[in-house]
């Protein structure tokens, strides 16, 4: 499935598609058609930049270019400047190569609609593991027409999203952890009857959710990454695995159910999207669109509970998959607190296969895309998070205690508790340009950048709430409503939010928001400057004085995505004739030189999703280059960028309108007449050289 550029340019006919480049069937099963419903955030939060603008107009206190510093929720005055440019690095001589130690020396892949993975000239790729491949000893060979719950519980799960590597104490051996976000039942079973699913089909789907832990080794002769069925480390975590609830909301009245009156033990994890690898060698995984799995929220009449359910997108009667027919915990009418037990960041320790994974309540409950950690200069750990919904928010958590270096049992056990005690914050942004200059067209303001300052508003710390009218318990369990009350800034679907270990800046993928500017919805703001935002943007945030525990920050938009020929796009100030088109940024990662890598979800430019690289420093800052594309209907997820190889998760290949298991329109990765199968793919240089060398 490796490629050359000339073959990558050969296009296949485009098939009917969802408005944002995603098929209707994907939207149905992945997020419960979230974009087809009203956004759950109906709060009237005023954008801070508009407040500033109104003060300026009314009082004439500011001259052009000044920024009003306003205190909020006990936070100090905003004092951070814009991000300073780093020293220029030696640059590539052109788009395709040049001699450079820390460059991105590959020829960009052209946009295409091929039904395969397309990589640059001189690179090749291979499947590492696919849905149904064995993970645990005794797993049978995959047989699409003879699936069973017992088999799936030992096999690689469905629709893998996040991928992370935890190194073992052996050269070129890792534990690879993959999230299995959701199941698409119409592609899982040829005889799927949406009105009458069987118990066996439901239990197969339960087993296909969750996570897989797989030992992988690199074969230096071929360059491939090879999975091993390891008896000690390999593991499957599913929708019925046991989790411990930890942190300040453990045992909360809102988490207790008839099956768990303690409110401290949950069965399963659902809709696990992105995640991160911690400095202590564990995996953080975000529970995202959990609302769609629960039925009969429409039967709730209590106004307080009804508002809480609505803020998380729970409504209606029967669920799409109808799991409530086989387990009452998915029926809100019978178990009203069960939905509150999802929407958390979970932590898994792949190095301890006997450990019980946990759900961290101190990090708040919302539609977590993921969580990513950096060690602050004072030793505390800071986790950055995004709530993947239109008009929702960006968050961070700062631990009370400090990280202990080393891999001793004592240090690891200490570090695994760091995310249980600390302070949870939500972000408020302001722009530094006059409101009139942010007109929704994407045209840059007079200062030449979308940029400004912001502050982190504290929500809760331990048993203390900073939000009027909310107990700390309510802040953690109903975080969205607490953030509404605190006056957070509405963003355009903040997905992956990750700190760059080289420059300590934070990069956020804001995927899209076609509702921005619609009647009754918030209009353009400087951090979200386009109405009908189909293509998304990437935000760069720098904490004050480079301190990740700071309460104030500066920010700027690194990328305003879309067709470079369109006037509403921006590529860090780089020449737009020399960049790859990019649409709908989703996940981000970094290579060892600090270059930013971006995977896309729902390319609205009518070509396949892909993986892109972009320098964030020096003269090539903003130069986007497409590294690979995934097959038709697929989303690019979970990028892992090592010096010698790149991993991507190819999620939902072949999910194209009109397709199904009975009528597959993709046969990737096995070819012939086979069913499409989600998989992890590795790409490497044919000469075994460095990816970015």
UniProtKB/TrEMBL annotation:
<feature type="region of interest" description="Disordered">
    <location>
        <begin position="509"/>
        <end position="534"/>
    </location>
</feature>
<keyword id="KW-0812">Transmembrane</keyword>
<dbReference type="InterPro" id="IPR006311">
    <property type="entry name" value="TAT_signal"/>
</dbReference>
<feature type="compositionally biased region" description="Basic and acidic residues">
    <location>
        <begin position="515"/>
        <end position="524"/>
    </location>
</feature>
<keyword id="KW-1133">Transmembrane helix</keyword>
<dbReference type="Pfam" id="PF05787">
    <property type="entry name" value="PhoX"/>
</dbReference>
<dbReference type="InterPro" id="IPR008557">
    <property type="entry name" value="PhoX"/>
</dbReference>
<keyword id="KW-0472">Membrane</keyword>
<feature type="transmembrane region" description="Helical">
    <location>
        <begin position="66"/>
        <end position="86"/>
    </location>
</feature>
<protein>
    <recommendedName>
        <fullName>Phosphatase</fullName>
    </recommendedName>
</protein>
């Amino acid at each position: 499935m490796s490629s050359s550029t000339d073959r990558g340019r050969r296009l296949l006919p485009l098939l009917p598609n969802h408005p944002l480049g995603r098929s209707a069937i994907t939207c149905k099963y992945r997020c419960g058609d979230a974009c087809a419903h009203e956004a759950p955030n109906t709060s009237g939060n005023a954008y801070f930049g508009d407040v500033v603008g109104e003060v300026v107009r009314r009082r004439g206190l500011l001259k052009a270019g000044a920024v009003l510093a306003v205190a909020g929720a006990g936070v100090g005055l905003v004092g951070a400047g814009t991000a300073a440019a780093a020293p220029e690095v030696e640059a590539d001589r052109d788009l395709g190569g040049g001699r450079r130690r820390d460059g991105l020396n590959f020829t960009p892949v052209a946009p295409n609609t091929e039904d395969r993975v397309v990589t640059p000239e001189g690179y090749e790729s291979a499947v590492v593991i696919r849905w149904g491949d064995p993970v645990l000893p005794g797993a049978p060979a995959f047989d699409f027409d003879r699936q069973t719950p017992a088999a799936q519980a030992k096999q690689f799960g469905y629709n893998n999203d996040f991928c992370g590597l935890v190194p073992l104490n052996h050269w070129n051996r890792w534990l690879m952890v993959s999230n299995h976000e959701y199941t698409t039942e119409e592609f899982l079973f040829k005889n799927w009857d949406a009105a009458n699913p069987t118990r066996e089909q439901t239990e197969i789907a339960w087993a296909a959710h969750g996570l897989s832990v797989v030992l992988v080794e690199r074969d230096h002769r071929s360059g491939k990454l090879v999975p091993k069925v390891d008896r000690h480390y390999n593991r499957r975590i599913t929708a019925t695995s046991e989790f411990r609830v930890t942190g300040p909301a453990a045992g909360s009245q809102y988490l207790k159910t008839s099956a768990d009156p303690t409110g401290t033990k949950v069965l399963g994890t659902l809709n696990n999207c992105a995640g991160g690898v911690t400095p202590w060698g564990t995996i953080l995984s975000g529970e995202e669109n959990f609302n769609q799995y629960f039925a009969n929220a429409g039967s709730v009449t209590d106004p307080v509970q009804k508002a809480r359910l609505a803020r998380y997108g729970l409504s209606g009667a029967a669920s799409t998959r109808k799991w409530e027919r086989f387990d009452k915990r998915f029926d809100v009418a019978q178990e009203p607190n069960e939905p509150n037990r999802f929407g958390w960041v979970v932590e898994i320790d792949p190095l301890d296969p006997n450990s019980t994974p946990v759900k961290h309540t101190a990090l708040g409950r919302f539609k977590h895309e993921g969580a990513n950690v950096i060690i602050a200069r004072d030793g505390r750990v800071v986790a950055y998070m995004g709530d993947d919904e239109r008009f929702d928010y960006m968050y961070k958590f700062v631990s009370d205690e400090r990280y202990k270096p080393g891999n001793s049992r004592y240090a690891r056990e200490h570090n695994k508790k760091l995310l249980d005690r600390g302070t949870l914050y939500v972000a408020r942004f302001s722009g530094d340009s006059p409101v009139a200059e942010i007109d929704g067209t994407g045209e840059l303001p007079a200062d030449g950048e979308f940029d400004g300052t912001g502050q982190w508003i504290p929500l809760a710390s331990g048993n203390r709430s900073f939000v009027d009218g909310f107990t700390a318990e309510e802040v953690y369990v109903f975080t969205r409503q607490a953030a509404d009350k605190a006056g957070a800034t509405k963003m355009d679907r903040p997905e992956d939010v990750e700190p760059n270990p080289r420059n300590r800046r934070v990069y956020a993928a804001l995927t899209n928001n076609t509702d921005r500017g619609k009647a009754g919805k918030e209009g353009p703001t400087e951090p979200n400057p386009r109405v009908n935002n189909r293509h998304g943007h990437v935000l760069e945030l720098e904490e004050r004085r480079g301190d990740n525990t700071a309460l104030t920050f500066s920010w700027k938009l690194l990328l305003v995505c879309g067709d470079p020929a369109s006037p509403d796009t921006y590529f860090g100030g780089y020449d737009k004739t020399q960049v790859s088109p990019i649409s709908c940024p989703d996940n981000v990662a970094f290579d060892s030189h600090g270059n930013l890598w971006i995977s896309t979800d729902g390319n609205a430019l009518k070509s396949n999703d892909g993986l892109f690289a972009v320098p964030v420093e020096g003269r090539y800052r903003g130069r986007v280059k497409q590294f690979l594309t995934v097959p038709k209907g697929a989303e690019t997820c979970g990028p892992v960028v090592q010096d010698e190889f790149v991993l991507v998760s190819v999620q939902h290949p072949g999910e194209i309108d009109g397709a199904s298991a009975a009528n597959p329109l993709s046969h990737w990765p096995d070819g012939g007449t086979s069913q499409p199968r989600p998989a992890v793919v590795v790409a490497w240089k044919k000469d075994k050289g460095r990816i970015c060398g």
